[in-house]
């Protein structure tokens, strides 16, 4: 049986999961735990795909590690939004950006583990007060996806030039991960809504009053971030990637999760005591009726109840304001604790100064050692995706001509693609020796070219 983590290693891997401060991101200890998180995430996905006993999930829940995973998600969020911009001010064109990708990917792996664990009520039960932090995190992540969709980001893939700067590539990778994380957070919010009775009233208020999750999910269902029209036809986001589909009405997982999240909240009489159905909210919820066609109800029969509820709501009109009950609310702690430590360290800029030797390291031997180390955790394909930034294709033909001393199109025509032998107008930006006709060809050749590129 294939495993990323063998049974005898599992306990040690899970026990090694711990929390870090923002200053520790990218450190040797952080990378050790990162490797284990990646392998646990891969193993959890494998167990799920093969319908095996979910041992990773069981260990994470019984060893009370979910709060730590939430902490790590927040830690990377603070790092990428508050520290990374300062690092890129120090050097706007870092030589080896794959370590930055590694940090960004850490957040996605952590959220993937939370998604697996919280499908089960036993996982939700262990959250306790950290559920407040998780609701905040997920609401923000979903809102970011809606923002990207409203700007047309998900349909912009054809407009991205392969020969843009590394920083633009870094931004693209960052947004791709924001997208994946946001769609997973729809799923997590659904699990929390499904198990809302397990939490303190503060969690219900956080979902319904502070973040108005029903309103947010209506926006999600209207913007449909899981589908896009491209030059290749209609695509839907299935199993973490964009896939061409012929059946436009077939429901995909994030869409179903968004519908069920709204249903769980609106049809929960106890939770709805906290939710005033005022005119603005009713107007927002009515939008759902226009989306509830027969093919949807055929695929998701539980939504028939929701449709009946919304139809009654249109007839009865909005309810008046509910009497506010006095409630001693718990306050989310995790981000607050992280920010206190950042203040002790002198602020985000000071942390960026401390970390520039890690993230802006120009020593080829160090870079090579780190790449080799991470390869065992990621596997070839993902490492290729992460590391390819080191040789990120693509220099413009003008740069090519400057190097060769040629004029006109001679420089472009003088070289052949290392992968397909077609004419190549671009070259590896790291070693500047190997030529490619496109980024796809560079990615295909990266497993072979990587060791030579790093040595050059």
Please describe what this structure looks like:
The strands form two sheets. The protein has a three-stranded antiparallel beta sheet, with no helix packed on it. Strands 4-5 form a two-stranded antiparallel ribbon. The protein contains 22 helices and five strands. Helix 5 (98-118) packs parallel to helix 8 (166-194). By secondary structure, the chain is mostly helical. 62% of the residues lie in helices and 4% in strands. It is globular, with a radius of gyration of 24 Å. The longest helix is centred in the middle third of the chain and has 29 residues, at 166-194. Mean pLDDT is 84; it is low at 158-166 and 385-413.
Task: Based on Cα principal axes, name the global outline.
Answer: globular
Q: What is the number of strand segments? A: 5
How many helices does DSSP assign? 22
Helix content: 55-70%
Question: Which regions are unreliable across 5 or more consecutive residues at pLDDT < 50?
Answer: 158-166, 385-413
Report how far the terminal alpha carbons are from each other.
Answer: 39 Å
SS-based class: mainly alpha
> How do the strands line up in the largest sheet?
1-2-3
Give me the Rg, rounded: 24 Å
* SSE pattern, N- to C-terminal: HHHHHHHHHHEEEHHHHHHHHHHHEEH
Average pLDDT works out at 84
The biggest sheet amounts to: 3 strands, antiparallel
In what range is the share of β-strand residues?
Answer: under 5%
Structure characteristics:
single chain, 456 residues, mainly alpha, three-stranded antiparallel sheet, two-stranded antiparallel ribbon, 22 helices, 5 strands, 62% helix, 4% strand, globular
């Amino acid at each position: 049986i294939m495993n990323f983590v063998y049974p005898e290693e599992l306990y040690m891997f899970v026990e090694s999961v711990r929390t870090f401060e923002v200053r520790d991101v990218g450190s040797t200890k952080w990378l050790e735990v990162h490797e284990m998180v990646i392998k646990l995430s891969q193993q959890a996905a494998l167990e799920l795909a093969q319908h095996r006993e979910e041992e990773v999930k069981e260990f994470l829940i019984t060893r009370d590690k979910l709060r730590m995973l939430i902490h790590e998600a927040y830690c990377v969020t603070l790092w990428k939004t508050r520290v990374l911009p300062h690092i890129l001010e120090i050097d706007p064109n870092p030589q080896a950006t794959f370590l930055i990708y590694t940090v960004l990917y850490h957040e996605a792996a952590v959220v993937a583990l939370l998604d697996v664990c919280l499908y089960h009520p036993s996982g939700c039960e262990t959250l306790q007060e950290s559920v407040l932090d998780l609701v905040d995190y997920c609401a923000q992540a979903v809102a970011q996806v809606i923002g990207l969709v409203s700007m047309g980001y998900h349909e912009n893939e054809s407009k991205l030039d392969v020969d843009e700067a590394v920083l633009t590539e870094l931004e693209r990778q960052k947004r791709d991960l924001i997208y994946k994380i946001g769609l997973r957070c729809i799923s997590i919010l659904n699990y929390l809504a499904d198990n809302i009775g397990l939490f303190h009233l503060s969690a219900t208020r956080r979902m319904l009053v502070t973040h108005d999750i029903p309103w947010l999910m209506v926006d999600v269902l209207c913007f449909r971030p899981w589908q896009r029209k491209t030059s290749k036809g209609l695509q839907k986001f299935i199993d973490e990637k964009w896939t061409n589909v012929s059946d436009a009405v077939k429901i995909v997982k994030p869409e179903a999760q968004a519908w069920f999240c709204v249903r769980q909240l609106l049809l929960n009489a106890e939770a709805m005591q906290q939710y005033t159905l005022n005119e603005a909210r009713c107007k927002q919820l009515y939008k759902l009726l226009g989306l509830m066609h027969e093919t949807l109800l055929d695929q998701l029969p539980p939504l028939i109840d929701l449709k009946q509820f919304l139809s009654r709501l249109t007839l009865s009109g909005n309810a008046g304001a509910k009497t506010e009950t006095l409630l001693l609310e718990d306050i989310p702690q995790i981000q607050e604790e992280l920010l206190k430590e950042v203040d002790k360290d002198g602020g985000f800029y000071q942390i960026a100064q401390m970390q520039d030797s890690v993230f802006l390291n120009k020593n080829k031997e160090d870079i090579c050692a780190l790449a080799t180390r991470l390869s065992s955790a990621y596997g070839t394909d993902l490492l290729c995706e992460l590391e390819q930034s080191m040789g990120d294709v693509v220099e413009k033909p003008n740069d090519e001509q400057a190097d060769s001393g040629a004029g006109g199109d001679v420089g472009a025509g003088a070289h052949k693609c290392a992968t397909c032998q077609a004419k190549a107008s671009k070259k590896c930006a790291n070693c500047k020796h190997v030529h490619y006709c496109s980024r796809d060809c560079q990615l295909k050749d990266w497993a072979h070219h990587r060791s030579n590129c790093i040595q050059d």
